[in-house]
Design goal:
The chain is mostly helical. The protein has helices at residues 4-35, 44-63, 71-102, 109-146. It has one domain. The longest helix has 38 residues, at 109-146.
Length: 148
C-alpha cells in the first residue's frame, strides 16, 4: 500500500518539473528568436508549447472541477505578468537596437510583429482562463457547499 504523502510528493515533483520545462521552453524560444534571429517556423514547437500549456492546464482543471482562482493571488499574478512582459519587451528592444547598429539593412519589423502576436495571444489566453477560473471557482464553491 502506498502512502498518501509519497503520492503527494511525486505529484508535486512532477508539477515542478513541468514548470521547469515550461521555463526552459520559454528561454529556448527567446534565445532562438532574439539571439539567433530564427523565424517563427524555426521555433514553432516552442511557440505552440508556450501558447497551449495554459490551455491544457485550464482544460484539465475544468475536467477535475478544480479552480486555482483566489482573490489574494489576483494582484500577485497580474504583477508577475506585467513584470514578465516588461522584461520581454525591454530585452527585445535592446536586441533589436543592437542589431540595427550592426547592420543598416536589419529588418526590425519581423521580430516586432512576431513579438506582438505572441504577447497578444498569451495575454488573451491568460485573461480568458483567469476570468473563467474566477467564474468557475464561485460556481464550484456553491456546488460543493450544496452537497453538504
Amino acid at each position: 500500500m502506498k502512502d498518501e504523502r509519497i503520492e503527494q510528493a511525486k505529484l508535486k515533483i512532477r508539477s515542478e518539473m513541468a514548470i521547469i520545462v515550461l521555463y526552459g521552453v520559454a528561454l529556448s524560444f527567446l534565445v532562438k528568436t532574439l539571439v539567433f534571429k530564427m523565424s517563427l517556423q524555426d521555433s514553432l514547437i516552442e511557440y505552440l508549447i508556450l501558447i497551449f500549456f495554459p490551455i491544457y492546464q485550464f482544460i484539465r482543471m475544468h475536467m477535475m472541477k478544480v479552480s486555482i482562482y483566489s482573490e489574494r493571488g489576483k494582484k500577485t499574478s497580474i504583477k508577475n505578468l506585467i513584470i514578465v512582459i516588461g522584461i520581454l519587451v525591454v530585452a527585445s528592444m535592446v536586441l533589436i537596437f543592437n542589431s540595427m547598429k550592426k547592420s543598416a539593412m536589419y529588418d526590425w519589423q519581423s521580430p516586432v510583429i512576431f513579438l506582438l502576436i505572441f504577447i497578444v495571444l498569451f495575454l488573451t489566453i491568460f485573461f480568458l482562463t483567469y476570468k473563467f477560473n474566477r467564474y468557475r471557482s464561485h460556481k464550484y464553491e456553491e456546488e460543493f457547499d450544496d452537497d453538504k
